[in-house]
Amino acid sequence: MSSLLVKPQIVPPLDEGFRPASLANRAFRRAATESGESCPLVIALERDEGAISRHETVAFGGKRAGSGENFLHAERLLKTLLWQRGGWRVIVGGPREVGEHLKAAYAPGGARAFDANFMGGVYEHPFTVEVCDPSEVPPARERRVQVGGHLEGCRIGFDAGASDHKVAAVKDGEVVFSEETIWAPRTEKDPSYHFREIDGALRRAAEHLPRVDAIGVSAAGIYLNNQVKVASLFRGVPPDVFESRVKNLFLDIQRQWGGVPLEVVNDGEVTALAGAMTLEDKPVLGIAMGSSEAGGYVDGDGNITGWLNELAFVPVDFSPTAPMDEWSGDRGCGSAYFSQVAVIRLAAAAGIELDAGQTPAERLKQVQDLLASGDGRARKILETIGCYLGYAVAHYADLYDLRHVLVLGRVTSGEGGHIIVERAAAVLRQEFPDLCDRVLLHLPDESSRRVGQAVAAASLPEARPA
To answer: Residue 162's pLDDT band (boundaries 50, 70, 90)?
Structure first.
């Protein structure tokens, strides 16, 4: 597969083996097109309520239809599309060898069985892969939803992160109270802990408002109709308890608050919404670097798409020695490149010894303190993440209509955020000049990075009439 392992022009200082997905995909498409035996490869994904996403590209046909390059490119592409857009049914139109390879990969016991099981659980359908002629792939049937931007009245926004949660009381668009609290939701087995933490924060915010007209929640995970489908915040809860007490947790909170309008939206989507509100422009892709990588997207009309946008599981590195994700068992996915996990991993490569007994947030803070003191090793960590980001943005540009990319999260606090964005911009200028002027990178100010998510969350629901 050496033809797909393209060395970047700007090598990350602490990762010489990095082989960007963006360069691999461009090299593959170019080689297939120039081979004289290219053919269409069309992939459609069906998700909830009959929505269908469709992606069209090329592959090798003829004698090379069953080549390793075809298989690797198609497998990484389908993995990417599944976590970007979501789906329980996959229709592959192209060389039959490619379709059968993907079918085997997503079968029980296959290389991508984790992804198949995950998607089947989210959409509550058996996961399937169907193979057909490209002409038989169904057309796209996308759904767009207008959400957020409501700042009238008295509102509470809650942002549930993996290491801290933030709450903001907002009155007619002005923040009258905000609070940030450390918590440890992922190890708690009893969801009463989560309920008390969330409800308690909401009540402290409510003390600063004459009334509560609406509550918006930004949370890592997958939420459909305010139900928790999958969320690492509840990773410690046993499956049977999850089904009985977590799935409807936010609906229970809404009842506790007298049925006040409440909306729960993935934190990545709220990141993008916060960016669109701040920039007063769109489309916006939000990338939040915290305990993992969260993604969200607001399209050119200001709508969210209903896609998963779980960029933490999207492959960004094709190197066979890329770090492995502990949950999915796959290599080269965004969670290991744009998160506290990335900082901790790269600290070892930089020769920085961190206290393994500390939480990931505390170890990140240690690296940030070293950076603030002028430690060159810490700077290399952030420069490496910036290189990763530049190549990942080019990869995301193949999937989204991009104008603005908003970068935020705990990893971007302090000087580190500026280093990351500057290095990413340098990658775009040198390696992807066609994107350099079209895609703008943004770093919110420190205040927006810390509580902007909670404020955007507060704008999610329409308030009921007074």
So the answer is: confident
Q: What mean pLDDT value characterizes the chain?
A: 93
- Predicted TM-score (pTM) of the model is 0.88
State residue 290's pLDDT score.
86
* Phi and psi, residue 38, nearest 5°: -80, 160
Q: What is the pLDDT of residue 375?
A: 98
Count the Cβ atoms, other than its own, within 10 Å of residue 20.
27
For residue 167, which amino acid is it?
V
Q: What is the mean pLDDT of residues 264-271?
A: 86
pLDDT at 450: 52
State the pLDDT confidence band at 374, using cuts at 50, 70 and 90.
very high
Residue 88 has pLDDT above 90, yes or no: yes
Amino acid in the structure at residue 152? E
**Which residues of the chain are in CATH 3.40.140 domains?**
35-136
Question: What pLDDT is stored for residue 448 in this prediction?
Answer: 57
pLDDT of residue 304: 85
Residue 112 has pLDDT above 80, yes or no: yes
Q: List the CATH code of the domain at 144-466.
A: 3.30.420.40
Pick the CATH number of 35-136 from 3.40.140, 2.60.40, 3.30.300, 2.40.10: 3.40.140
Phi, then psi, of 138 in degrees rounded to 5: -65, 155
